[in-house]
Write a structure and sequence with these properties.
The chain has 29 helices and 16 strands. The protein is of the alpha/beta class. The strands form 4 sheets. A 6-stranded parallel sheet has the order 3-2-6-7-1-8. Strands 11-16-15-12-14-13 form a 6-stranded parallel sheet. Helix 4 links the parallel strand 2 (62-66) and strand 3. Helix 6 (120-129) crosses helix 9 (174-191), helix 19 runs antiparallel to helix 20 (440-465) and helix 25 (633-650) crosses helix 26. The longest helix has 26 residues, at 440-465. It comes from Glycomyces rhizosphaerae.
């Protein structure tokens, strides 16, 4: 066996039968239907490596298109690990912009239009020229609508008839939107700028109209891989067609059951019609789920098994490959404030029990739901990462840290080993590895800088694992170069913190523990989903959320939106399943029985002024922030002293013992028994068993040293 044959055999050795079939399919059109957690990235990277190792082409001849810079970075890293370098793994926009900047000077006579980050300014100008009075919110809606139209290959002249045919709601009178759309295009032309949709359109036009450019691009890129093919827009498909020309060496990967971006113009039609368009295409289905436990997989199959429409014809029934895990849990809370508080409390407990904060996620339908969870988690001292906020390398604290690292690379710090140089350099921005703030925005900023420090260690370990490839240990200058590469590709490191994300933003991610919250009908599915097609997309959105969980999954909703408010129903996709903890549906034809008593929304009133409490922190303490507290200051200080010592002997952050808010509640209520202590927020059974005797000892006037001894090892 030749060395090449050995390398190929080693490449294929760890694949399951379906993955191996996908990897070794003959050159030409290949469609891989890959369910959630079935190893699609593994399959496509191995297919690229297989084609290169066979000698079909070099890595430089491959273009792999992804939908996020993070996914592109992960694909490049995996390919490097397989010994394949030079693959052009990029997003559609990044790949197109690169070509436009290289070839576009000819097309634009030496002056390439400037790319704008935000179209809002030009939308406002266009609306004014069209005679339409708008606000910032209205301009945002108009911008989103014009982006959808451009991605759907619908121009201003066709807009009115197109949305009428689709039954689509417009953000203003359709005729007015069309006028703004036309004025927007003109405003960009006059200013000499382009938006992201223009980048794709200009590149497709350039290739289609200039044969010499088309020949150069097609001779360079001979094999195409497209990830998340169910999310390709008509405009992206047009660009892909221009890249391919009359060739058909393309592998697409997708899952019709994860089609959730129709509001951007994405359509699963390209995936559904692939084998019709390419008669000789190979079709492979990946259904073995390596991500989630059978309990999670089973619920996902139940949800998507009831789907309807074209996408349902290509749905996959997943087969869980992992050992059994905990049951999926379901719970109804009195209202949204209680739901946020209790979820934050459980996140805190998971972290205290050893789960990394970065392996926990709270997922919701709309970004507006984020704030309640940010506040609740901060009150428990739990760090958070809000997906969809500022990009990692654009964050002020990250920019300052990178500047500090680059500055240190020009000093004597650069002569230190990398593991020492990075922490030393980061002291300039006030970061120390053992000085994490208790929670909130400061903790989030601290964890972002910590991610850079952790990345340095990973960078060092990678080089040590590949000494022949990468040479001796890298220095601080080499690490700064790695940061520059990652920043240019928006390949962010993992940040330690509980992830808060909308279901749309969670696509492509996964965690050990997932809390799916706000599952009330009207929120999921949203009230804006009025058609069968829209409702089916909401079902798929829930499916995507469920399949993000590896081990633990909790579903929940607040019976009322606010304390004492109108009761709501459970999400209609979950209601028929009869999950324990959720209201059970009546079976068709069943004998009428006494309806289950529904949980009443619990109203907590301030112990001082008597007003209802809605803020999570106030509800924990039992009174408004403005009302006088009855806290025993001496007890509070003794509790804090005890907490610091106990946390130190346990080797974990102080907030994981009890948060400041919980200590305040103890010092205000002065509980006299286990039951009174357990009634306070932040004290569950495990903490009651471990710390309860010591806390009650302190409440009763005991010495701090004695309370510390009560929490010693072996107790």
């Amino acid at each position: 066996m030749t060395a090449r044959d050995q390398a190929i055999e080693q490449l294929l050795s760890g694949l399951d039968p379906e993955q191996r079939e996908a990897v070794t399919a003959d050159p030409g059109p290949v469609c891989i239907l890959a369910g959630a957690g079935t190893g699609k990235t593994r399959a496509v990277t191995h297919r690229i490596a297989w084609r290169v190792l066979r000698g079909d082409m070099r890595g430089q001849h491959v273009t792999a298109v992804t939908f996020t810079a993070r996914a592109a970075g992960e694909m490049r890293d995996r390919l490097r690990g397989l010994g394949v370098a030079g693959v052009n793994a990029r997003t559609f926009h990044s790949a197109a912009l690169r070509q436009l900047r290289y070839f576009g000077m000819r097309r634009f006579k030496g002056q390439l239009p400037e790319l704008i980050d935000s179209a809002l300014k030009f939308t406002a100008i266009a609306a004014a020229r069209a005679g339409l009075q708008t606000s910032r919110a209205k301009n945002f809606d108009l911008t989103t609508e014009m982006e959808w139209a451009a991605s759907s290959l619908i121009g201003p002249d066709d807009y009115v008839s197109a949305i009428a045919a689709l039954g689509r709601d417009a953000p203003a009178a359709p005729e007015d939107v069309a006028k703004v759309y036309a004025a927007y295009i003109e405003a960009k032309r006059r200013a000499g700028v382009m938006d992201f949709a223009d980048v794709l359109a200009h590149t497709a036009d350039m290739i289609g109209e200039d044969e010499s450019i088309a020949d150069q691009i097609r001779s360079q890129y001979r094999f195409f891989v497209v990830d998340e093919y169910q999310d390709v827009t008509p405009l992206q498909q047009r660009l892909l067609d221009s890249w391919l020309g009359d060739r058909d060496d393309i592998t697409v990967v997708g899952d019709a059951s994860q089609t959730i971006y129709s509001f951007t113009g994405a359509t699963s039609r390209n995936l559904l019609d692939f084998t019709r368009r390419h008669k000789s295409a190979s079709l492979v289905r990946l259904v073995r789920d390596y991500r989630s436990t059978p309990q999670v997989v089973g619920l996902a199959n139940q949800i998507i098994g009831e789907s309807k429409g074209r996408e349902a014809k290509m749905r996959l029934e997943l087969i869980g490959q992992r050992p059994d895990g905990p049951a999926v849990t379901a719970e109804v809370f009195a209202d949204e404030a209680e739901e946020a508080d209790m979820i934050a409390r459980r996140c805190s407990q998971l972290i205290a029990d050893g789960t990394s904060a970065s392996e926990i996620a709270v997922l919701y339908r709309t970004n507006a739901q984020s704030q309640a969870y940010e506040e609740a988690l901060a009150s428990y001292g739990v760090p958070t990462v809000v997906t969809g906020a500022a990009r990692f390398f654009d964050r002020p604290e990250v920019r300052q840290a990178v500047v500090a690292l680059r500055s240190a690379a020009k000093t004597e710090v650069a002569s230190m080993p990398l593991s020492e140089a990075v922490p030393t350099a980061l002291e300039a921005v006030g970061w120390r590895p053992d000085a994490a703030p208790s929670g909130g925005a400061q903790r989030e900023a601290y964890e972002a800088v910590t991610a850079l420090a952790n990345l340095a260690q990973q960078f060092l370990e990678h080089h040590r694992a590949n000494p022949d490839e990468d040479g001796p240990d890298p220095d601080l200058e080499a690490f700064c170069a790695e940061l520059s590469r990652r920043a240019s590709e928006q390949h962010a490191p993992a940040v330690e913190g509980v992830t808060l994300a909308s279901l749309h933003a969670a696509k492509g991610l996964e965690w050990d523990a997932v809390f799916l919250v706000g599952l009330a009908d009207g929120t999921l599915p949203t009230t804006f989903a009025r058609t069968d097609t829209a409702l089916e997309e909401e079902r798929r959105l829930l499916y995507v959320g469920i399949t993000r969980a590896r081990e633990r999954l909790q579903l929940s909703y607040g019976l009322a939106r606010n304390a004492g408010g109108r009761e709501r129903r459970l999400c209609r996709f979950l209601a028929p399943l009869g999950l324990g903890g959720f209201p059970r549906p009546s079976a068709p034809g069943a004998t009428a029985s006494k309806p289950r008593e529904r949980k009443k929304a619990k109203v907590l009133d301030c112990s001082g002024c008597g007003k209802p409490l809605t803020d999570a922190r106030d509800r924990k303490l039992g009174h408004c922030e403005d009302c006088p507290a009855t806290m025993d200051e001496g007890l509070f200080e003794r509790l804090r002293e005890w907490r610091v010592s106990v946390a130190k002997q346990d080797g974990k952050p102080a907030f994981t013992v009890f948060t400041d808010v919980t200590l305040i509640a103890i010092a205000e209520r002065c509980p006299g028994s286990d039951s009174e202590l357990a009634s306070l927020h932040g004290i569950g059974k495990s903490k009651l068993d471990k710390y309860g005797p010591a806390v009650l000892h302190l409440v009763n006037g005991g010495e701090v040293s004695e309370a510390i001894a009560m929490c010693g090892e072996g107790t």
